[in-house]
Amino acid sequence: MGLRQSWVGSANEPGCDFPLNNLALGVFDAGHGRRCGVAIGDQIADATALEAAGLLSLGTPLLTHPSWNALMAAGPTIWADFRVQMTDLLRAGAPAQAKVAPHLHAMQGATLHLPFTVSEFTDFYAGRHHATNVGTMFRGADNALPANWLHIPIGYNGRASSVVVSGTPVRRPWGQVKGPDDNVPRFTPSQRFDFELELGAIIAQPSNGPVSVAQANDMIFGYVLLNDWSARDIQAWEYQPLGPFQSKATATTISPWIVMRAALDPFCAAPPDRETPLLPHLADSGDDFHDIALDVTLTPQNGTPETITRTNTRELYYSPAQQLAHHTTSGCPMRVGDLLGSGTISGPTPDSRGSMLELSWGGQTPINVGGTPRAFLEDGDTVTFHGAAVAPDHRIGFGTCDGTILPALPNPYAS
Amino acid sequence: MGLRQSWVGSANEPGCDFPLNNLALGVFDAGHGRRCGVAIGDQIADATALEAAGLLSLGTPLLTHPSWNALMAAGPTIWADFRVQMTDLLRAGAPAQAKVAPHLHAMQGATLHLPFTVSEFTDFYAGRHHATNVGTMFRGADNALPANWLHIPIGYNGRASSVVVSGTPVRRPWGQVKGPDDNVPRFTPSQRFDFELELGAIIAQPSNGPVSVAQANDMIFGYVLLNDWSARDIQAWEYQPLGPFQSKATATTISPWIVMRAALDPFCAAPPDRETPLLPHLADSGDDFHDIALDVTLTPQNGTPETITRTNTRELYYSPAQQLAHHTTSGCPMRVGDLLGSGTISGPTPDSRGSMLELSWGGQTPINVGGTPRAFLEDGDTVTFHGAAVAPDHRIGFGTCDGTILPALPNPYAS
To answer: Domain Fumarylacetoacetase N-terminal spans what residues (chains A, B) (predicted)?
Structure first.
């Protein structure tokens, strides 16, 4: 499918993240309170206002609250209808152009908020290169992958309360750590604070029992970039035997625009080769993966952005649908607004790794960022993710997912 | 403090879980829709109706929705005021008795629902005997306690969506398992389905940064009994390295009555001896433990209830306030309605263990229940928790927390 021309000129420009083909969904404030908005070129179409004006009609009002959850809950037929109507309002030659134009706002200058209310957040570990790298560092190359890894998309429950929108500063956390040279644990600001490059899948249909991989795919509304900030030193001390907890609870940043699954359909990709067959309940149901190019820039305080890694969501071993299907095997109810992180997406080469832990190989080989070595993140660093599915004449972009590291607070428990 | 006499006669009877001293909070339906209710003897006072009638006034209406979250969010001053007013309405000789009486409903016959909306659910592992027992089974007596166990209340995030109220049947889950004799994993109904006897703490004040143990204690609104149903075979295969996930996601059952922290103040207990000192941020801040007697009955299908364990919440090594303080160290935001499970509360003796895993020592020594051996739970078994803080002339009871095991569904993925 080629570029769909919009009467919003910037949407037709090469390299634009938000052509008419995308129709990404956000919540914005351009000075008149929070509204549901649709990204188009360098503009945001005020969807709440379009609905109020009768230019967009979804049966019942779904956009009166500044969150996309109501549309999400409305189901796939409404999602498709919404895309048809928005396309018709914004396409080149749209009869309604003059009526829609007053409801556009410059993206620059608008404040973006979380695009949906996160019900619960689960983080998977579905990237094979990442799991292999981390396992090699911690357990040696011969035991890199956990025994279960090729059989189930392992994951853990995270904290929905810690999910923040791109641009929110992230405060370096304190935590209890015990290094190999420590006789007793210490309470300290994390010295090994890190990012994790992930894709977030947004669940928009509930379930109350096990669902198949195909059913799971239909429950996914869209995707965001997701940075699962991680304190490696806190994690190393706390994670046995119950898994990551406070090391992952400071913040999880998501990009502000939901890219709907429908926008990514032309960029579906086949599953990876399976080293061992998956059991039937997790078997591949189709081309449920996506070809989305990802990169990360790191900008030191007062420095210039430097790209430190490039990878692709095709590096995932388990699709979001497989992650979700596994999530329901026990009967675990899923709800509208559940967010599933993919786990870190690393590629096979050293320059395609999705975390500082891997890029610096546990801190042993710091990378060069603007002339200074970086093993983990320093105060003032800004980490920025970019992602886009790329066609010859357009791209379906996610915008950016960024956060700046603030220094740790003084010891919150000093007397 | 002795028994406070109520004009509701059943509240003054020995052995009653709900004397005037308790004022436990639930959501009930006695045929007129869901309402906020206060347990008094064998009756429920319709607090929603009392507020609507002007007999209970909390500044703004807080009980119009069938959930106690609004009162919880209102803060400690309102919580205390609420208890004063309810006591005044229900005490012997209350001037308002005639006006209140029409708003009482028999507890028997009323349907009880979740008393609050669970924001997020976290499960700790704060019982030393339980951690020692499980560790001994899995790693041997010399390495029973994980290295971090005496230094932090380790825990993991659970699923709020799976929290159900007492009485809700629990369906035996399917899951992927791989036993020691299996060459490859299998997808099967759990054969080692279990209960875990826990105390649940309800967080009712938000935080947005680290809080001290003393501050944490003030954020706790009340307590429920909590059964963290666990599929041990699924857990054994999935839990490395990210912790329990689907093994704990089928259901978590809570008792229907919130016992407010104020009701338990007379039953505060001192911390246990500390084998190693806790770091300052987790140090004991006072008598934050409680003396609450617990027991579990197991009722086989068509059988009679048999008490299979007796223990006490004093067996916890970390208080709920310490659990909560640790939860916030990273800056993790807490919200009104967060639920913290204590972890399994086992005592030091074989007949005080809080799970079948421990009672049957991993299935090796099944216990006798009504003449038949039980290693784990069978279909049709009903597990019932009881809990009460016991004074010479009254008790602060929790009611019961029960669930009956339904057989697994047919293979949900059979083609």
So the answer is: 21-115
